[in-house]
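hey can u check if this looks right to u? its 168 residues, i copy pasted from the old doc so theres a chance i mangled smth
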Amino acid sequence: MTRTPASTIAMRLLALGLAAGLLAGWLLPNDSGTTDTDLRPLVIAGEPFIVELATDRASRRQGLMHRSGLPAGRGMLFVYPDEAPRAFWMKNVAFPIDIVFLDADWRVVGSTRAAPPCPGSDCPLYRSGAPARYVLELPAGTAERLGLAVGSRIAPPPDLPERVEPSG
């Protein structure tokens, strides 16, 4: 019987552990509570972003609450089943963000730049100004830097769900 050296066994265990960790990281939710299937690439004014989708009542209600920040190149895309006036607030969001309201054709219909955090319960509402089907939240200063203004159009992300849960 041939014995396998301890160093070979240790290397195999290390490789197995790394593979298991990578697989778990791919399958399990990340630290923001999302899975890879909730993320989409989005190109805005030629700049790549990764956006987290909020397509049901629970994810739209939660939004970016109770997170420590929103890194550059990341965002959250709220997807609704219809166009309607939208209003957002910053309750329990600890950092400023840009809120960009988009119609069904992905044209900007309104925005709020650098909406400040609201640690209390008496938070102001930020309104779309026109019916919106999508709402994009980005790190503060991003909308201005990219030149997003009313009438600007962005291309939708790939594989966007056709059907989403109604509001309410």
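The helical segments are 6-27, 57-62, 142-146.
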